[in-house]
């Protein structure tokens, strides 16, 4: 979600932690610091690249990706390479659960919306059917519904910054029903993907679905409300952006910009300081607090503490309550993706998407059980949460957020581990973690075992605030950091890092870094989500390129090894107003699924006169956020 955070949000981390950049500059001078952009880990690969790009670029290019690139542009529809097909799988308002009424955009109701596909699809997960099988053709597809655009959903609200605040109570109830997530069964028949109607697994989860809270913070006083004196039963999940899955086949969905739903005079409340660190203020983004008391912090001061968590959902059991796993901390989680430690423990990486916020990982206390799925039921309730410090020598250190260790003590306001988890950002500040340029997805390459951190942008970083891992002031286009865990072990508290690519137009934008054979269509801006194919190639989706760079958001593929390392190529371009998110490939690489989120979300675009009516292009039909599937005509792996 960028329509708000790009323009207004100045970040809420007031940390005065001396910038690593300052230290390097003092030692090396500014130019030396920039020359050191690529860490030692990438040096060998760069050597290959320089050889490769001259030797091979003339004929097929050094990339292993041979599709014909989509030309940069920006218009009302999407674009795919020649020889590929895109199919819309499910759109906002399409039926999800049995008995869902047909989509009627002129008469939206909460009752209908809670049975239909929600708004602004984001993360996509694929869970094989049957569970544990190696299918490429039948999945439970889980999808997040991050947020709503009332001005594009409802007639008569107009446009502009306050449009969301004009929603009526019934409209807010539709919005709440359009949030959350969906489970749909999909099957490929004759090369075409279909949603299975009335699947027994089909499910909608919304902003009012009853959920449980587990882990060290469950039942804490700061989680108790008038409606829930137990502090362990929450209604709904909000602003679920990216996510992940677990090795035991559950869906992790990440609550991101939850602060925007809350209103009331936060500054006059006893918890004003903590609210501020999480961006909760009078300047609410929605009309929810006007109509529903629990979103007004003056009436229900602890309700915001019940959001900002990782939620675990079992897609194979529609009757199982979603569970907010507090051990993974509370912040603006972009996503939550796993890698296995050498001893079988499971490591979950998560970015806190705010300017100057941090990168985290959680390591389970116990290994996961491959034989007995049920034995992993509460694995996420016990373990250690760490925050990253990116040092000037190319090393990364993971600092434990454990009560009683270092400054995380009662004297500093943390009476228990639960306090640390509820106020994770404040605890991480004390550990002097490295403030980053808005960490979005953090994902592990299954082939080389390295971890890739998408840093979307940060135009508020000053020259005085640069550090080596965030080397640009006014970083409009973002960059990608590649972490190599020590000894290849994700549970290690040490590793090394380097910058894989940096966004912007080469030769124009300061700091842009790619393979030198990157074409005029292959450069990108505002990296957000990523996925890897079975060959370890990275697929990067962008969010914010139209504003930052005047090109559509898209999907870009690149090698991570060999002669084509870091050579991004444009595979997909979104319709105007939309970001691309949720990229995921089938295990055989034959399909890539994408969420096309907020099509038509342009300045001045309204329900009556949207900037696009993608994907239906029918009079009276508003633009509809949708999941699409892209395949190669005649089959075969995506990209080559
Ligand atoms: Fe919802 Fe961080 O993008
Ligand atoms: Ca989004
Ligand atoms: Ca984003
Ligand atoms: Ca995102």
Summarize the structure.
The protein is of the alpha+beta class and 640 residues long. Helices cover 12% and strands 27% of the residues. The protein has one domain (6-256, 308-632).
Entry keywords:
binds calcium ion; six-stranded mixed β-sheet; alpha+beta; disordered N terminus; 10 helices; nine-stranded antiparallel β-sheet; 12% helix; binds MU-OXO-diiron; 640 residues
* Associated small molecules: MU-OXO-diiron, calcium ion
Domains counted in the coordinates: how many? Answer: 1
Query: Which structural class best describes the helix and strand composition?
Result: alpha+beta
Give the overall silhouette.
globular
Report the strand count. Answer: 30
User: Sheet bearing the most strands, described?
Assistant: 9 strands, antiparallel
* Helix fraction by DSSP (H/I, runs of at least 4): 10-25%
> If you compute it from the alpha carbons, what radius of gyration comes out, rounded to the nearest whole angstrom?
23 Å
Overall mean pLDDT:
92
List the helices and strands and how they pair.
Blueprint lengths: L19 H16 L4 H17 L27 E8 L18 H4 L7 E8 L9 E8 L4 H4 L15 H10 L1 E10 L2 E4 L7 E3 L4 E5 L18 E3 L4 E6 L5 E5 L16 H6 L10 H4 L18 E4 L9 E3 L11 E4 L4 E7 L3 E3 L1 E9 L15 E8 L4 E6 L16 H6 L1 H7 L5 E2 L1 E6 L6 E5 L23 E7 L8 E9 L24 E6 L5 E5 L2 H5 L4 E5 L10 E5 L5 E7 L5 E7 L28 E7 L8
The protein binds MU-OXO-diiron and calcium ion (3 copies).
One calcium ion (CA) binds next to loops.
